[in-house]
Write a structure and sequence with these properties.
heterodimer, A: alpha/beta, Rossmann fold, 7-stranded parallel beta sheet, 18 strands, about 30% helix, B: about 250 residues, alpha/beta, 9-stranded mixed beta sheet, two-stranded antiparallel ribbon, 6 helices, 13 strands, globular
């Protein structure tokens, strides 16, 4: 029984939403390759989560439960996943390309003697082989690649694979694996600013740029974001000026996001910024310069003074919420 | 502290990347090469570590002879010497790169090995992890804060994760990959640039294994449909909201 194995991401003893995308992709790939779609859960006290993967078509769920896996450890997690991959004859190993996924799967691949296609956005099967598309140069070029080693290992960029429920009668199996003494130990996981939604995880992102003129005007971005349940992002100029933390920067040297809706406010949209957000489904731009490059890729643009437009937008959305 | 910084030369962030007619290679002509921006954070951190604790910074770069111009820019920042692993091209498979680097790194007896968190050309974001696995060293990626205690042979790093940070403790020697925010890289002074001309760059042959990542084809991303202006000023807001609600169905 060879598997198409998905490593699940668990934080705070919850399966993160991004897993549903990875499970769905794994199920589709397993169907085309004739493999058993399977999930592996790692953690401490995570057995209660083991039923969830079957809702997304995972026929097997392997659970490795160990106190030493309570926090993420690249060393222990990689050893455990590599062992599960061996025991289940994994032909494909997948995980969401999150901070954890991008850290973990290359370590797993290395232990298994193969290599990782990192941060892929598409795949297809041709003559029984998986061909991945992965952006390079922050999306300026797409490369079609094939992992010729075995198993095939890849991380999947969040928000690029639509999750699809498809319940099966899954089997849960507990596996025990030998864990090494970890070299690096996570001592603390700190949530930033009141557990705010991360810009890479949000369905809606409201981003601000230099057009806001100063950090004292950032409340406009935050107010709109809060109203929409959105995360806040920032252009490089704003981060360099120290108005916003680095973790919010969207662009080539910041984060890459692909939300359903991206609202760029006072951002001119240099090529480096576009690299981080151009695969958003809908882009709204508000800028006073009609020649700003952001308007070339905006689905909906408003040319105007953001200090007038954004408050009007906030009012209009408030009205809408009251009607609903 | 004996510090190594693995650096790569990459096209600058504004470069227009052109695909060659064979569709499996990229045009290098006319490209302005820079130190990979994340590697600059790594070099800066290495310099700060030796300024505080003593020691030397060695740059290690896998690439062609032309990469020496970029290596000199790292030396101009203050790194003491460099090793260039000679290869006509940087391998497409990060595993191959990692194994070649590991071979040189294990000879160097380094207390700290720094990388950028990813190169802005191939965006693999994994060579540090692979080298660490090969050398059985602790590795913390995407680091925004680093504190070392060489006397006790330990360090602590904060790495960025979604919605927060992980604080990670590790023994030295260790491998760290740098994220924006770790520090502010210094400018190269004229004195630094002059001094860099005399600093040694040792050339070694890179031992490159067979690739397990085949690039079948490069393509440009599908063009986005041209932008559309809804209107001007706050008068356009009701129409924008209507479109977001009725056409895009996102509100």
């Amino acid at each position: 029984m060879a598997t198409c194995l998905v490593v699940s991401e668990i934080r705070d003893n919850q399966l993160k939403n991004v897993n549903w995308e990875a499970f769905t992709a794994a199920r589709q790939l397993a169907e085309q390759l004739g493999l058993t779609p399977a999930a592996v859960l790692l953690g401490s006290g995570v057995e209660g989560l083991a039923e969830a993967p079957a809702r997304y078509g995972m026929e097997r769920t392997y659970v490795v439960d160990d106190a030493r896996l309570a926090n993420y450890s690249g060393d222990c997690y990689a050893a455990a996943v590599a062992e599960v991959a061996r025991q289940t004859e994994a032909q494909v190993v997948l995980m969401a390309a999150t901070a954890m996924g991008k850290d973990l799967l290359p370590r797993v691949a290395y232990r298994l003697g193969t290599t990782t296609a990192q941060d892929v956005i598409q795949f297809r099967v041709e003559n029984g082989e998986v061909i991945f598309t992965r952006p390079m140069f922050a999306g300026k070029v797409w490369a079609e690649v094939k992992v010729t080693g075995s198993p095939v290992v890849a991380t999947l960029r969040p928000k690029m694979f639509a999750p699809e429920e498809k319940a099966v009668a899954g089997q849960v199996e507990k596996l025990s694996v030998e864990l090494p003494e970890p070299l690096a130990v996570v001592e603390e996981v700190k949530a930033s600013g009141g557990g705010k939604l991360d810009v890479t995880e949000a369905d809606i992102v409201v981003s601000g740029g230099r057009g806001l003129k100063g950090p004292e005007n950032w409340h406009l971005i935050e107010e709109l974001a809060e109203l929409l349940g959105a995360a806040t992002g920032a252009s490089r100029a704003v981060v360099d000026a120290g108005w916003r933390p680095h973790g919010e920067q969207v662009g080539q040297t910041g984060k890459t996001v692909a939300p359903t809706l991206y609202i760029a406010i006072g951002i001119s949209g240099a090529i480096q910024h576009q690299a981080g957000m151009s695969s958003s489904k809908y882009i709204v731009a508000i800028n006073k310069d009609p020649d700003a490059p952001i308007f070339k890729i905006a689905d909906y643009g408003i040319v105007g003074d953001l200090f007038e437009v954004v408050p009007a937008l906030i009012e209009e959305i408030k009205k809408l919420k009251q009607q609903d | 502290m004996n510090v190594a910084v693995c650096m790569k030369r990459t096209p600058d962030t504004t470069a227009k990347i052109q695909i060659a007619s064979d569709q499996t290679s990229l045009v290098e002509e006319g490209i302005n090469w820079i130190i990979n921006p994340y590697d600059e954070f790594a070099i800066e951190e290495g310099l700060r570590v030796v300024e505080k604790h003593g020691g030397e910074v060695t740059l290690i770069c896998l690439g062609p002879a032309e990469a020496e111009k970029t290596i000199r820019e790292g030396l101009a920042m203050g790194a003491h010497k460099a090793i260039r692993l000679d290869a006509a091209q940087v391998p497409a498979d990060p595993r191959v790169t990692a194994r070649a680097l590991a071979e040189v790194l294990k000879e160097g007896n380094y207390d700290l090995i720094l990388f950028g968190k990813q190169a802005i050309d191939d965006d693999h974001a994994q060579v540090a992890s692979l080298v660490a696995t090969e050398l059985n060293l602790p590795c913390v990626n995407v680091v925004v804060k680093l504190e070392l205690d060489p006397e006790n042979g330990r360090g602590t790093a904060e790495r960025e994760i979604e919605g927060g940070h992980e604080r990670v403790s590790f023994p030295l020697p260790a491998i760290i990959s740098a994220q924006r925010g770790l520090n502010e890289p210094r400018y190269r002074s004229l004195k630094g640039i002059m001094a860099a001309k005399k600093k040694p760059i040792e050339v070694k042959t890179a031992s490159l294994e067979d690739s397990q990542l085949a690039v079948l084809k490069y393509a440009y991303p599908p063009a986005k449909k041209p932008g559309r202006i809804v209107g001007e000023g706050k008068e356009a807001v009701p129409e924008l909201v209507r479109l977001l609600r009725e056409e895009a169905k996102v509100l």
